[in-house]
TrEMBL record:
Top-level lineage group: Bacteria
Protein name as it appears in the record: Phenylacetic acid degradation protein/carnitine operon protein CaiE
Listed InterPro entries: Hexapep, Transf_Hexapept/Carb_Anhydrase, Trimer_LpxA-like_sf
Organism the protein comes from: Hydrotalea sandarakina
Pfam family, one: Hexapep
Entries under CDD domains matching the protein: LbH_paaY_like
Amino acid sequence: MIYKFRQYIPVIHPSAFVHPQATVTGNVIIGKDVYIGPGAAIRGDWGKIVIEDGCNVQENCTIHMFPGITVTLKQNAHIGHGAIIHGATIGENCLIGMNAVIMDNVVLGNECIVGALTFIKADTIFEARSLIVGNPAKKIKEVSDEMIQWKTEGTALYQALPEQMRLYWEPCNPLTEMPGELDINDIEQAYKTWNETKPRK
């Protein structure tokens, strides 16, 4: 659902995928290979929203601002399910965990990781590669090269998803029974969760 607001019409690169159950309004720019999931609300009515190349904004996220503010998701930012970004700047290759809340005038340096359910209060600035958790949020350590590699590989799955959605996604009627044994999905083999990447003790 794409809506004009006043003179502003969203600008969406043809390689991006915006789910039809997402809502994009007004002064919004969406770059290359961006994935916007169902239920996302990206509302550029009072200010501007820039979502740079390679970002993903997952299901039920909200992006908005106070009047006159620009929200920027820099290249390869990864916004987890249900997160809220309100008037903030998210640095390149950052990961925002599920249901995190990032408030007004927050600036995250590049390659920060924000834990799920974290609350970052207004006017807070975190330097690059901060691992941020809690309510209120605090930096607990530096993000390691290993963590960034894991994050980057996860984001790459979302960067491939727009094209996969165009190829394979279509409305259908549900089956009434299981069709038999299903093959293991190739994606399950291509990417491991953080716990799976760590050696067992």
